[in-house]
Amino acid sequence: MSSVSESTDTAGISPVPTASAVLLHIVQSIVDDPDAVRISAVAGRHGKTALEVRVGEGDLGRVIGRRGRTAASIRAVVRAAASRDNADIDIEFED
Q1: pLDDT tens for residues 68-83?
Q2: Which one is the CATH code of 3-94: 3.40.109.10, 3.30.300.20, 3.50.50.60, 3.40.50.10860?
Q3: What CA–CA distance (Å, rounded) separates 18 from 13?
């Protein structure tokens, strides 16, 4: 089952709900095994929230794409969605 696991702030509210939902939807649409997609929100550098993306075996190449173009496009779209959350984010694709 796919999921978004997020650290929460002191009020118990997700730090970047819109960005996380958009990221989950995009990545699940690309991979062969959408149920293996995991996204975690963690504290990143310089006060940014980092969204860590983990995918099933063999799907990382599909998400990164040729010369990183797919990953760059995903980052651009999700950063735009994060502006709705008033957040600055980083996206990390984990092995």
Answers
A1: 999 999 999 999 999 9
A2: 3.30.300.20
A3: 12
Closest C-alpha among 55, 53, 60, 59 to residue 36:
55
- Contact assessment for residue 56 and residue 31, using Cβ atoms and an 8 Å cutoff: yes
Contact 17/86 with Cβ under 8 angstroms? no
Pair 5, 38: CB distance under 8 Å: yes
The CA dihedral of 39, 23, 85, 11, to the nearest 10 degrees, is: -20
Q: Residue 11 burial by CB count (10 A; 0-12/13-18/19+): exposed, middle or buried?
A: exposed
Q: Domain residue spans in the chain?
A: 3-94
HSE at residue 1, side-chain half, CA atoms within 13 A, is 3
pTM: 0.83
